[in-house]
């Protein structure tokens, strides 16, 4: 089963993303900030995709992405960024993002992006 790590500090958004992804057949694990996300990533097996917010306390999305890129075991895991920041700001700060989703976005848009990043056919 495909596993997605959702890294989101807003509990209602994290809960909604988890429910939507699980309804679509994915296994979902969550973290409330980038540091906790890295702790989740340290556990095996690694998720197939990370879906992260940009702005979070403790460690933000770009810092987590940099740490992932610097770790040979994590560098190949695709990361999709979900944020309400302007796209130019996201692109400048979230180097290496496989996909950018601007909030608010619909469930269909989010799921379509997940399918594209994972290379699935659904």
What do you see in this structure?
The protein is of the alpha/beta class and 122 residues long. It contains five helices and five strands, in the order βαβαβαβαβα. It has helices spanning 11-23, 34-41, 61-70, 87-93, 107-118, and strands at residues 3-7, 27-31, 49-52, 79-83, 99-102. Helix 4 (87-93) links the parallel strand 4 and strand 5 (99-102). It has one domain (3-85, 94-118): Response regulator (Rossmann fold, 3-Layer(aba) Sandwich). The model has no long low-confidence stretch (mean pLDDT 93). Helix 2 (34-41) runs parallel beside helix 3. The protein is globular.
Helix-strand blueprint:
Blueprint: E1 3-7, H1 11-23, E2 27-31, H2 34-41, E3 49-52, H3 61-70, E4 79-83, H4 87-93, E5 99-102, H5 107-118
Parallel strand pairs: 1-2, 1-3, 3-4, 4-5
Cα end-to-end separation: 14 Å
The helix-and-strand class reads: alpha/beta
The CATH architecture can be named as 3-Layer(aba) Sandwich
CA-based shape: globular
The H-level CATH homologous superfamily, spelled out, is Response regulator
Radius of gyration: 13 Å
Count of separate structural domains: 1
């Amino acid at each position: 089963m495909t596993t997605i790590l959702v890294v989101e500090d807003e509990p209602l958004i994290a809960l909604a993303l988890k429910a939507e992804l699980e309804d679509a057949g994915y296994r979902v694990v969550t973290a409330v900030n980038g540091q906790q996300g890295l702790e989740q990533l340290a556990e095996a097996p690694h998720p197939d995709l990370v879906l992260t917010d940009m702005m979070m306390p403790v460690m933000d999305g770009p810092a987590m992405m940099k740490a992932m890129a610097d770790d040979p075991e994590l560098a190949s895991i695709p990361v999709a960024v979900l944020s309400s920041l302007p796209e130019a700001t996201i692109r400048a700060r979230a180097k290496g993002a496989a996909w950018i989703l601007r909030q608010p976005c619909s469930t269909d848009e989010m799921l379509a992006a997940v399918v594209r990043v994972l290379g699935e056919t659904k």
